[in-house]
Amino acid sequence: MEFIKFKDVDKTYKNGVNAVYDMNLSIKKGDFVFIIGASGSGKSTMIKMLYREERPSNGEIILGGINVAKVKNSKVYKLRRKIGIVFQDFKLLPKLTVYENVAFALEIYGLPTHEVRKKVLKALDLVGLKSKTKSYPSQLSGGEQQRVAIARAIVNSPKLLICDEPTGNLDPDTSWEVMQVIKKINDLGTTIVMATHDREMVDRMKKRVIYLEDGRLVKDYEKGTYVNESN
């Protein structure tokens, strides 16, 4: 079942930079897709358009039946409730505990305390950090902090998890641990779209790989590796 569709999408910034050209792409519900390419290839722009940080200059981006580009600014928060986003820098609040950092994402929606607790503990259990609820970010390793960020992103059970260089600040072993958590989330049915420079990770995972070059989608491998780009 088609879940995400880019149809004739272009993006030109106000400074004249053409970040994405003529992009046509379909992603099925439950897919795990890596987006790769050199810096400036359009990865971040593509990701930002998906969660409506940026609008396309032309074309349509359909996410779960919604034309993302036409969502009004005042309604973007409703779209983002259905999406989890994980960044390279963990963006945790240093004065809040692990539990509070994850709960914060739900409390802004006004959910009752007992429901928040149930969802937070479930998310922390999924990422293997249920024992760290009272810890603060400064007491955690980089990998643990990223897993808290993932728990926060999935606590509302999003249909889509967008990851923008989630292992960029982590060593290879820790990156692999984090990737196994993301894979587990995918196995439970969440669609994953991940922009990355991590060649080794892409090679090991053997998932779908979309390769961008100068804003264009130049290769799309169903079960690819990073090295395919040079073939």
Estimate percent helicity: 25-40%
Total strand count, please?
A: 10
Strand order of the largest sheet: 6-7-8-3-9-10
Average pLDDT level: 92
Order of helices and strands: EEEHEEHEHHHEHEHEE
* Low-confidence residue ranges: none
Largest sheet: 6 strands, mixed
* Alpha-carbon Rg, integer: 18 Å
Gross morphology: globular
Structural class given helices, strands, pairing?
alpha/beta
How far is it from the N-terminal to the C-terminal residue, by CA? 30 Å
Characterization of the model:
The chain has 231 residues and is an alpha/beta fold. 32% of the residues lie in helices and 26% in strands. It contains 7 helices and 10 strands. The strands form 2 sheets. The chain has a 6-stranded mixed β-sheet, sandwiched between helices. Helix 3 runs parallel beside helix 5 (142-154) and helix 5 (142-154) runs parallel beside helix 6. The longest helix is centred in the C-terminal third of the chain and has 16 residues, at 172-187. The protein starts with a strand and ends in a 10-residue tail after the last strand. 40% of the residues are buried.
